[in-house]
Amino acid sequence: MFRVKGARAVALLDAWLSWARRCRIPAFVQLAAKIARHRAGIVWSLTQGLSNALVESTNTKIRLLTRIAFGFHSPQALIGLAMLALGGQCPDLPGRAQPHPRIWQ
Known about the structure:
Layout: H1 6-22, H2 26-37, H3 39-48, H4 53-68, H5 75-86
Helix pairs in contact: 1-2, 1-3, 4-5
């Protein structure tokens, strides 16, 4: 259904939810109840193409930088590292003819 998108995907979701609610397998019934609680957000994602993937990706990268920065003497060093890695800036480094390619893009 996530490959289909739009109104067709919503119809597929509703059909699956209908089947899962009537299913006699407890795991499917529980999953259908959870999906039904979040149906509005799922429908929004299917019809509008929006998600929180970018935010989650940035959070994961910041967690990685926090582990790298363990032992720094101040939080400003971590903030600087995050701004350098995720801030979109790519300053020229001394002794290099071209800017170093960014690790995360």
